[in-house]
Amino acid sequence: MLSKETISIIKSTVPVLEVHGTKITTRFYQLLFERHPELLNIFNHANQKQGRQQTALANSVYAAAVHIDQLEAILPVVKQIGHKHRSLGVKAEHYPIVGETLLEAMKEVLEDAATDEILNAWGEAYGVIADAFIGVEKEMYEEAESQVGGWADFREFVIAKKVVESDVITSFYLQPFDGGEIATYEAGQYVTVRVQPEGLEHTHLRQYSLSDASGNDYYRISVKHENDGVVSTYLHEKMEEGDKLELSAPAGDFVLDTSSEKPVVLLSGGVGVTPMMSMLNTIVYEQPARKVTFIHAAQNGSVQAFGEHVAEVAATHKNVNSYVCLAEPTEDDIARSKYDLQGLIELGWLRGALAEAGDDADYYFCGPVPFMKAIKQHLAELGVSDERVHYEFFGPAASLEVEKEKEKEEPISR
User: Fold this and answer.
1) CA spacing 20 to 30 A to 119: which of 83, 259, 284, 369?
2) Which of 29, 62, 126, 137 is flagged as catalytic?
3) Annotated catalytic residue: which of 95, 234, 339, 364?
4) Is 339 in the active site?
5) CATH class held by domain 4-146
6) What is the pLDDT of residue 249?
7) pLDDT value at position 412?
8) What is the pTM of this model?
9) Where along this sequence does the record place binding of FAD (predicted)?
């Protein structure tokens, strides 16, 4: 337990962290990788270059300061981050290194404002928070290894099948190289893929949603080929059927509640469709009477994945309604009437599409951040309560709050 004095000191740093948080975490990562370059093997280099990881950590430090007198309030975030840490191989021995480096970054950035009193208080607070992470992640490691078909750290899988789903998305069907069982998972979870492309010094890790229902003898991931994506390019262009990949056991807390029979609305943009495919297929297999509204937005039909599968599911299952929204349909899309809405999802159209979902439906959505901001805002305007709204970021968490002063200059787009 933290003393009242320590809590008071931490609280006093909230305004400073709000202003200088990202500068502190940027310096933190610079120091961390200078002194411990081996940790580059477990960090997403792309998120570092884009500044997403620095911003996410700054937000986490700020949240810890705000809630330092009620740390139980951030326990859900601890568990969410714990899933990612376990899937990446973050271990207890990494926490002292992080704590020491974070305090040094605070001291450098804040200079004289970072008094010994403040640094000692943050050192004490970090120890308490780190212990919470270590405890949660210890349980997660034990569960991942002890479950039927489970394993510790990374395990070799073979690409049994490689299937092109669209111009930009390809599915990889992965089976264990050792021929053993594989762990089941909850719809919406992901696995971490570890690769080391030829010519690169460090291993690269990426988390990809499992895009099919659990219970098969394979895991399926469906990967979008990003133009500057080191791992996605390697998977698309270099990895073939019969090649091996290293995977961590399934993880993640963005999962379908299969204990409920309430109607479900699944909304996705672009490659955000992947966890929704797992959820849709799971409902069809395990809850065939549960009502589903499936809404997917894509740029056009050529980049839309799983369109035929979803259409077939909707045609053969009375409980499933499906809608396709294409921002800029091609001539072929228009000729074949492959969509229900041209353009971005607007409030009026969404209200109509959700008419049959029911007043007690649960909502799950995933996609690019602008798409997610728009969906969250629309659902709020439709009166959907926060406890019925669930979403997942691909990468470090960001804010879905619309910045009011920018709305006129930067309209929400997908």
Assistant:
1) 83
2) 137
3) 95
4) no
5) mainly alpha
6) 97
7) 25
8) 0.90
9) 190, 206-209, 393-396
